[in-house]
Amino acid sequence: MLETLGDTMLVKRGVAEEDSKILKTKEVKQKMKTLKRVGSIAAGAVMLGAAVSGAVSAGMDSTGLTKDFFYDAGYNPVIQIVLGEKGMATDAVAGGNIAAVIGNLAYTSAEATVDGGSASGAVVLGISARGATGKFEQSYNPTSGNTRLIKVNRDSDTTYDFYNDNEGLYFNQSAGGAIKGTDGIETYTRGEFVSYSLACDQQERTEAGILKKGTYNNIHCLFCQTLCLSALENPEHELEESISIDFNKIKYFEDGLGKDDAEALVLKIESKAVTYILDAGFIPMNKIIENGTSDTIDFEWRGQFILFGEEYYVKDISGTDKIYLAKGKILDDISSEGYTSEYMGYKFKIDHLIYSAEYEVAGILLDVEKPDGTVVQTQISKMANGIVDDIEIAGVYAEEADAVATASIIVYDTTTNVLLEDGKDLELGGEVKKYWKVNMVSVQANGAAVDVSEYDTATDAGKVLSNVTVQYRHSIELGVGEALEFPTTYKVMWDGFRTNDYTESPCSGAGEGDIKIEREGKYRGLVSFTGDDGQRYNGVYIDQGPYSEGDMFVIDGGLYEYDDANELTTDTTVMKVTLKDLLNGGKKTYDLDAIGSATSFTMYTYAFEESTDNDAEIVVEPDSERNDSDVYIGAGPAAYLLYDGGDLYAVVDNDSTALTYSNAVALLEGETIGINQNIFSPSNSLQKFEMDDGKLYMTVVNENNTYDLNDDRDSDGTDRLIQLQNGEDEYLIVDFYDRDFNDSEDTYFSENVLTSGNALDVTAALTDPSSGPSATTDYGYKWQDEEDTVAITPEGGLVATIDYGGSREVEAVTACVPQDIVYATIFIGTSEQATTIDTTITKEDEGTEKTVGCCTYLIKEFGVSTSGVSAESVMVNPIVGNLVVPEIAADTTKNLIVVGGPAVNGLCGLTKDEIQAASGQYVVKKDGNKVYVAGWTAADTVDGGNALIAWLQDNVH
Q1: What whole-number distance in Å separates Cα of residue 446 and Cα of residue 85?
Q2: With 0-12 CB in 10 A as exposed, 13-18 as middle and 19+ as buried, what is 484?
Q3: What does the alpha-carbon distance between residue 59 and residue 915 come to, in Å, rounded to a whole number?
């Protein structure tokens, strides 16, 4: 039964009267409360937490369930929760959970007015950003002197060539053409490394605390050996690390050309290009004696040491060419009275001190409690350190007073052991770091360069360490995203092409197919791209037609769609043709005049290959009576439009005579139809591509029947070349043509793709091939073999993928053109990681613009701040009677929630098979005035109760 004691309800599971044992008690507190809210934030009643509110899943059937099944109009509960006489304790848990939620939802609310007061707030929006700690470096205009980015045939062999993996382009130029650092060598110290947070065009930069710098003292008095040395000094030594990059030894290039390997953008770091440097602060490498006396000034260094951004302790120095290091910790409070200090889970206590004959401390016997709780003993002395598992223990100081021994020790982690040996590869953690060569420079302690005043009077025998360098003595090639990893902490990563915000630039048309140039049939060309309006235009014709209604095509840099054509009813000699101007918006209508002629004329297609066989005739037959003709001619957008029976052609007259209905037959006789610079003019290129800071231009260049611009079989220069030009004046040139191909003699088509540092600009002034553009090598690099399918430009980062057909036909080229200006980029530092950039919006920002991520918004209204306060009064209803009852006490005239299956609860109307077959193996189902909650196992019944709870929380209020 359910008993109510004050404002506390006790939920008890009833059993037969003769067995009064309480099986389960669950306490649910309810209190009358009045909850307020600010602005439009709704108040809520106290709810049972997520611990009991599982998501509604299969097995929960809400058919017929409404609020009214559980509550009256005033939100007073009208149900009983019935537990089975044979139910388990978990049934009581399920029933108690349901009762708690029903009680918590038994409230009403009303709006209330509160005088005075104010409220304010702020919204903080965080955007995902790419973070990094270190320094980005970019190469600008990667040239040598005034040579071009792409090698040409008259350049000397010392000119650097992006397409030659034995040469490549140097990485040593900064913005404005200046050489990086000192003659191309840049040294980075602590203050030069920064932490970046990069998102869209936003950057946050703060100084990074890497590349360590520290001031340290020697650790003296190993077992008090120096107590009587009155001249002993302990000067400070400042250690600082830096990284040096010789950009003259770093080049990048396109790899894989002329090979079966996939083409890729590669960075080559030559041997000795990367050096780690530690300014060692003139730490002592041996005992330093005052000149002319036997007094000791300082001892061989046992203090801290920096290496690759981490701190170590010196364990030993051998001569002046070997230093042994390990990470560790000084423990100053070791005692015989208990385990007072800990390192790496090991605890230490002095068992007793060991004394020499002179009653000086000669050693310490330590009890060491290991992480697993076992205790072992180890001895440390002047002669040897103690060893326990992977820790090594050295003594610093020890004494005994009043029968209590105390000591200081250094505990080393031997898994981090380091050996620095002059002229040898670094050894770190027991592993030799191949190619990382150590060089150590020691000088006289009393030398002029040593700025430690305590050493001014030292004997010539004293040596101090000036610096340590660890240099990578090997060449390595990195793909984009790969890094030269230092032995620890630092790296040099090749990021490929990045914007000046060091982020990757999306390609124009990214996600929609980039920019694709392809051919259709024997003479037609297509381009697919995303415009500066964000719309995708697929299958746009770049030839002269024919165009059908709905076709898109380019004429002299404009993008049009053939919309409609209507013959005037008042004048049957005029055809009105309507074109949509897709990039600029709107429509344009052109009046074409009917051609009346008893003579037909023939135009010829300009085929890609085998012109003799593939040039086809297009016969146009006007009617002799203009009023009956279905052929029209007239000026269109920068070209003439020819209408023939519904098809449109873009035509020109080669002798510059204006085309009219009276002369069109004669002037268009023999006209060639195909990809044509007279339609796709170099002086009026297609430019409205989806771009940000970058630029892109597309045009067609006709060879002028004199010069073969791309050095192919078509030696008389009759190709029509499609040209993309980026904002860095790099050119991608696509050649679909081999009109001289002879299938009885030729094996491969002479078609190709070129990248160039010069435009295809054929003029009458270029009369001598030796002084003008005459061949591929004069313009750049030519792709003409199936083994080379990717073309990359070295400055603008344009990446073209070539689709070859059979026998080396160029079928299509897909170009990824960065929307932004990009630069070859490397990263020097520790890491690149995800971060966030926060933008805060407050009431004061109303009426201003705020940039959030990649977008800028006008803050029209800030709804969190308000000058008044509204409130909502919430009244929780008291629970009258018992919510949870045993089945014997159930009031069957009420709505019942029956908990438990037929084996434990006689009121359950479900079958075992029905429960077992349910997904989730529980059933929540309404049947008349009962809701059954039953599971196959005890835990399944609790899950069913949680499903009903979730429904109640989602649907009651």
Answers
A1: 96
A2: buried
A3: 9
d(C-alpha 940, C-alpha 923), whole Å: 9
Exposure class string for 517-539: b at 16+ Cβ within 10 A, else e: bbbeebbbbbbbbbbeeeeebee
Predicted pLDDT at 282: 97
Cα distance between residue 745 and residue 736, in whole Å = 20
Give me 405's structure tokens: 């021994």
Q: Residues for the chain: how many in total? A: 957
Distance CA(447)–CA(450), nearest Å, equals 6
Q: 3-class DSSP state for residue 475?
A: coil
Q: Between β-strands 631-635 and 601-605, what pairing exists: parallel, antiparallel or unpaired?
A: unpaired
- Given a contact cutoff of 8 angstroms between Cβ atoms, the answer to whether 530 and 819 are in contact is no
What type of residue sits at position 427?
E
Q: What is the pLDDT of residue 15?
A: 33
- The DSSP output letter for 867 is S
The number of angstroms, rounded, from the C-alpha of 202 to the middle of its chain's C-alpha atoms is 15
Closest CA relative to residue 726, chosen from 765, 763, 685: 685
Residue 777 has pLDDT above 50, yes or no: no
Does residue 307 come out as left (phi exceeding 0), alpha (psi in the -120 to 50 range) or beta? beta
Task: Identify the helix (H) or strand (E) that includes residue 94.
Answer: helix 89-104
Task: Give just the sign of the alpha carbon dihedral 787, 793, 794, 797.
Answer: negative
**8 Å CB contact between 579 and 563:** yes
Give the span between the Cα atoms of 344 and 206, in whole angstroms.
Answer: 33
Beta-bridge mates of residue 347: 342, 369
Long-range contacts (CB closer than 8 Å, 24 or more residues apart) made by 905-914: 905/82, 905/83, 905/84, 905/85, 905/86, 905/87, 905/91, 905/934, 906/84, 906/85, 907/82, 907/84, 908/84, 908/932, 908/934, 910/934, 912/936
Are 34 and 44 spatial neighbours (Cβ–Cβ below 8 Å)? no
Cα→Cα distances 762→94, 347, 678, 709, Å: 87, 84, 14, 9
Q: Counting Cβ atoms within 10 Å, is residue 594 exposed (0-12), middle (13-18) or buried (19+)?
A: buried
Helix H, strand E, coil C: the string for 103-167 is: HHCCEEEEEEEECCCCECCEEEEEEEEEEEEEEEEEECCCCCCCCCCCCCCCCCCCCCCCCCCCC
- What's the rounded Cα separation, in Å, for the pair 602 and 629? 17
Q: What is the DSSP letter of 689?
A: B
Classify each residue of 365-388 as buried b or exposed e, where b means 16 or more C-beta atoms within 10 Å of its C-beta: bbbbbeeeeeeeebbbbeeebbeb
The answer to whether residue 874 scores a pLDDT higher than 80 is: no
The partner residues of 548 in beta bridges, in order of sequence, read: none
Q: Which of 670-674, 880-884, 937-941 has the highest mean pLDDT?
A: 670-674
pLDDT in tens, 446-467: 999 999 999 999 988 899 999 9
* CA atoms of 366 and 346, how far apart (whole Å): 12
User: How many CB atoms are closer than 10 A to CB 259?
Assistant: 11
What is the rounded CA–CA span in Å between residue 395 and residue 412? 11
Residues 649-658: what's their mean pLDDT? 85
